[in-house]
Amino acid sequence: MGNKYRKPTTLHGDAGSRCSLSVVVWCLVGCVVMLHFYSLLFDRNEVGGGIQVRLNSRLSLTRELEKIEEESFFIPPPRGKRSPRAVKRKPKPKRPTTIIEEFLDENSQFRHLFFPDRSTAIDPMKMTENDDLYFYPGRMWLDTNGDPIQAHGGGILYVERLKTYYWYGENKDGPTYHAHKRAAARVDVIGVNCYSSKDLWTWKNEGIVLAGEQANLTHDLYKLNVLERPKVIYNDKTGKYVMWMHIDDANYTKASVGIAISETPTGPFEYLYSKQPHGFDSRDMTIFKDDNGMAYLIYSSEDNSELHIGPLTADYLGVTHEMRRIMVGQHREAPALFKYQGTYYMITSGCSGWAPNEALAHAAESIMGPWETMGNPCIGGNRIFRHTTFFAQSTFVLPLQGIPGSFIFMADRWNPAELRDSRYVWLPLTIGGAADKPLEYNFRFPLWSRVSIYWHRKWRLPDGLWIDQR
Ligand SMILES: *[C@@H]1O[C@H](CO)[C@@H](O)[C@H](O)[C@H]1NC(C)=O
Ligand SMILES: *[C@@H]1O[C@H](CO)[C@@H](O)[C@H](O)[C@H]1NC(C)=O
């Protein structure tokens, strides 16, 4: 940016060199004042008007998204923090004291706000004109058979040839239990479900495309193990659909990735093997296929303290030796990667089990890094919503065919009391405008475009997006 403020050389002309020193000084002062004003403006945006400013950024491309309702849902404020000493002296409070505790408490009087009941379900078979094609984040979502969609921790593959979206995710339609006293809530491995859709709203159940194993105790997919975050990409060279997933034992000590392949998007997938990529523990993960056909694995490692990223082999059935550690010491999981105009972006969550936490957006010029953290991408709703990723955790970011720079952010609102009743939070994500956390060395001038995820109680995709598809 320095060049922009360099004193024009014509000033040297008549005034001569005696004058030039004071001109330089005044120019420097001017620069500092401008920087200061910029900072002030910037800070004010962050506190108050930021949402409005950013809303204008890229939404002109998707006018339909501008018209949707803003957050109107009210959550009572937390009932105040207790100091650790107060907690020691007094008996444990019976009522939850924070919104997160309220969210996790299956007897909370506010539970219907987080998990609205079936009467409000999105049902494509019983749609009224008012609700046709509207997304309602957090509501129950039914497939074309009228059953709640079971595709948790999922991802979507668009198959151009078939003009169809395929949504893969965990089938958690079994009882929730704790394997032992200290274990997290779990559901036995049932398998990976697949749903197909032309419009991203009406989903047909294509069944279990990779089934859990009922009897064989040594099999990776044995029901008492863990299968999470399945993602599918298509290999143009081998003509195979390749699924990667997190494979673990009930205590999360196996920490591996599993790989399965299929001839068709709807399976059945053949399970091949699991491995620890690059010899490291691997838990939450995703895969990303770049424009040039290169694919990458991104996984939480070193006990979730950092992420690792590395290219897959040409057949997508393994990793190469190349690997970079990124976001070291930042303790991030649930990575969702996407690309726009040559820049790579990632959304991650913190590590707090089934409890929601704050999302962060990251950006990089090269997929192998360095990656920079840009701050919380969540916008709108209220403060608590923004600080809990709308009570959800990232799982995937889907580019919208036909609207460059617009994406759908897909997240899971986990329900640890009844995991099968976990909800989907899908929201519009756009790239554009100023980053809200200035990076080091940039004098508060953002180097990256802002990634924004807008809260909407109700929203729909632009009309006409599906004209040639429905
Ligand atoms: C059980 O699974 C293991 C590992 O996949 C396999 O090697 C073994 O053949 C299986 N046993 C049976 C009886 O299918
Ligand atoms: C998991 O940990 C519990 C408690 O430490 C132990 O009893 C159990 O055998 C472990 N299970 C596996 C599959 O390692």
UniProtKB/TrEMBL annotation:
Coiled coil: none annotated. The chain crosses the membrane at residues 21-41. GO terms for molecular function: hydrolase activity, hydrolyzing O-glycosyl compounds. It comes from Macleaya cordata. It comes from the Eukaryota. Keywords: Glycosidase, Hydrolase, Membrane, Transmembrane, Transmembrane helix. This is Glycoside hydrolase. GO terms for biological process: carbohydrate metabolic process. InterPro entries: Glyco_hydro_43, Glyco_hydro_beta-prop_sf. Belongs to the glycosyl hydrolase 43 family. The keyword Lyase does not apply. Pfam families: Glyco_hydro_43.
